[in-house]
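Note to self: user wants both folds in one dump. Writing first protein now.
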Amino acid sequence: MLTVSRKIERLVNLTIALLATKRFLTKSEIFRIVEGYEGTPETKERMFERDKDDLRALGIEIAVGSFDPVFLDEAGYKINFETYQMDLGVLSPLDLSILSLAAQFWQGAALDEAAHNVVRKLGSLGVSSDLSDIPAVPSRLANSGQDIAIISNAISEKSFIDFNYISSDLKSEQRSAIPFALATQKGFWYVACVDQGKQDVRIFRLDRISGRVQKRSNLIAFQAPTDFDFYASLTSAQSNELAVLDVRKGKGKILRNLSVSCKDLGEWDRIEIPIVSLENLRSLALWHGSDVLVQSPQELVDLIIDSLRKIVVAHG
């Protein structure tokens, strides 16, 4: 179980509030909405200024604007979704361990009662908000924390890893490989390995690994390829099979970021997304609720229907 300081909890709740709001929030509104701002007005001011500096140091851009542009009232604050994303690039084992823990905490924070409390408080102040504007961490990212730790350790030790991998035709295959690099692209984790069965470099996406990764000792000398371009390989290895989804205008930003085409349908946009993991697409589509309609493939439609039926049975 993760434990976090009150300050970190306050920073997460502040981020959620500034992402969910549809307009700029004044300081006084922020102090009422976000738990953790306590003490005298001067104390709250100092805490807020430090929190803004901390978020900006993390690369989170806070936009400043007027609550009422006509009368130029007190300055307000919000975070624009478009500036919130970042490309993590190739990471060290230590970086991966820290980010794995952070991802698990954000997965809980973005979905638990705290996030909904923030939205309810925004509503009580008459502030329009939307929880779907808070970026979702793909469920497999949070669940892969143990796998990431094993793989990063195998990279540093030049060890083998054994795992079951879901191939492009959705069949599970046993793979044995020596990993040498990890990277992220569009919110997904990838590991580059020398596949022992193929005797060549292969890239595996972590959310297509079925079950747990097992590490075992390597008794042979191993040298990672020096001429391997991870990101060029990721780009050229995109799936040819596409999922078709209709997304309501102004919604589904995470899905839009994954799309390779977009057609204007009026109130909706029809987007196409390369299929690498049907399970991950199901999670993302369900996250956006009624703002996303899945058109194809039928396998994905069936997964969505099955999930919704289970939700009805569980909650009535």
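First done. Writing the second protein, which came from a different request thread.
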Amino acid sequence: MAVKLQFILLMKVPIISYLVLYAGLTGCSALKTLSARDGSAGASSTTASKNNAPSFIDDISVTPGASKEPALVKGKKVPAFTAPAEPKRIKSVNLTPGETNPAVLQMKYASLLDVSTNKLTNIPLLQNIDHWWGTQYCLGGNTEDCIDCSGFTQTILRDVYAQNVPRTASDQYDSTEHINDNQLAEGDLVFFHTTGRGHSVTHVGVYVANNHFAHAATSEGVTIGNLDDPYWKVRYVGAGRVKKS
């Protein structure tokens, strides 16, 4: 009985050995396969990570939401882009047309004409100029929508001084008494040659004070001009005073 049991045990030892050896071999193969799989997964993960990484052009990051700190471009610091601020606009003071308050008008036009307020005593004149201030210029116009130079002077002389003058600048020049520049006074007319050849009168304004005149300019509409301005100085023809009827 003991001999038979020993034989059985001797027969089982090789079988067990073979089983252990097979398990060892298959285990290594499995480990290699697993290792290979783990390695390929890691490479794929690395590639994907690289593909998703921010791209660079000349060493400048284009990642959305990047910092506004200066970027490095070829070793030099370049400040982050900042949109330029809008220019500050200076609002004009007391230049609203249609003002009727005498004190306000005197201060406003004293500044425009460079005179003291006590030099501006004709409030109806200031009120009428201010009423028309900025009205657009148009040739032949005589309304609050648009007006030309002779239409403006004709209106001012009629409404402020109760004087009637012809409609055109050249006719107004012919109908006035021509005076020297040192005789100029408020309400006189000043005449200019602005277009074409010769010295014909093509523009007119109403003298106010201190070499300044009110007129309807082609570019600005009704405004204040200065006889000392180089543009008007070379185009000045002369002054005229409306003849008393």
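Dump finished. Worth passing along: The first strand starts at residue 56 and ends at 57.
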